[in-house]
Amino acid sequence: MSDGVIENPQEHRFELALDGDDIAAAYYQMDGNGNLVLTHTEVPFEYSGRGIGTRLAIGTFDLIRASGRKAVLKCSFMARFYTTHREYDDIVVG
């Protein structure tokens, strides 16, 4: 379901383990309504073009859905991903 993506609430991010200690991460903040505001996505440059960002986005959205929470998309990458993946309409607000 989440394809290797985990939530790290202490760091306020979703993580996808890569090689060694490398990770791809989607950072979030909580808003006053309990929504996860996705603010920034990072994939190390050396992993560009491998679909890592897409795997991270799918895993992040799936984990948010499974937890019963909603997402607000302030991250440009996540917003672009969502425009072509409207199957996540049920969890995206704002």
Short synopsis of the structure:
Residues 6-93 form the N-acetyltransferase domain. The protein is an alpha+beta fold. The protein has helices spanning 52-67, 76-83, and strands spanning 5-8, 13-17, 23-30, 36-42, 71-73.
The residue-averaged pLDDT reads 96
Tell me the CATH topology: Aminopeptidase
Structural class estimated from helices and strands: alpha+beta
Query: In one word, what is the shape?
Result: globular
Strand count, sense and barrel status of the largest sheet are: 5 strands, mixed
Tally of helical runs: 2
Query: What string gives the helices and strands in order?
Result: EEEEHEH
Q: Termini, distance in Å?
A: 25 Å
Fraction of residues in β-strands: 25-35%
Rg calc: 12 Å
Task: Indicate the percent of residues in helices.
Answer: 25-40%
Strand order across the largest sheet? 1-2-3-4-5
> What is the number of independent domains?
1
Low-confidence stretches: none
DSSP, total strands: 5
What's the CATH H-level superfamily name? Gcn5-related N-acetyltransferase (GNAT)
InterPro entries: Acyl_CoA_acyltransferase (IPR016181), Gcn5-rel_NAT (IPR045057), GNAT_YJDJ (IPR031165)
Protein name: N-acetyltransferase
Explain what the structure shows.
The chain is an alpha+beta fold and 94 residues long. The protein has one domain (5-88): Gcn5-related N-acetyltransferase (GNAT) (Aminopeptidase, 3-Layer(aba) Sandwich), CATH 3.40.630.30. 26% of the residues lie in helices and 29% in strands. It is built from two helices and five strands. It has a five-stranded mixed beta sheet. It starts with a strand and ends in an 11-residue tail after the last helix. The model has no long low-confidence stretch (mean pLDDT 96).
